[in-house]
Design goal:
Radius of gyration: 19 Å
CATH architecture: Sandwich
Number of helices: 1
Structural class: mainly beta
Number of domains: 1
Number of strands: 9
Strand content: 35-45%
Length: about 110
């Protein structure tokens, strides 16, 4: 019990000192859509060195597999569904992604700057 009181007091002191804990709201979120087997936008920028959330909405009636060989994502997204990816920080550069079921049309690039 004594230990719990000390831990609680330490946490309260941390907040009282003005320090804050990062929340999920601090993570930038980017959204792309799949329509007619194409991504929109096909190209977009993210901050280099910072984790981000990527939401992929499939507006087509058919499923699409969102994937990349350049950063770790892979998920089949049902027609009318969406996939949410928590992407770890990327170094500066270009990172290609694609829809595996429609590789001729469903292609895009994320640029980390």
């Amino acid at each position: 019990m004594k230990r719990m009181i000390l831990v609680t007091a330490g946490v309260l002191a941390l907040f009282a000192s003005g320090m804050s804990v990062a929340s999920a709201d601090d993570v930038p979120t980017f959204e792309i859509t799949i329509k007619d087997h194409k991504f929109d936008p096909e190209k977009f920028d993210v901050p280099a060195g910072k984790d981000f959330k990527l939401i992929v909405k499939n507006l087509d009636a058919t499923p699409e597999e969102f994937e990349s060989f350049d950063f770790p994502v892979e998920k089949i997204i049902a027609g009318g569904g969406e996939g949410v990816f928590n992407v770890e920080a990327l170094d500066a550069g270009d990172y290609k992604f694609f829809g595996e079921f429609n590789m001729d049309t469903a292609n895009g690039v994320i640029t980390a700057k």
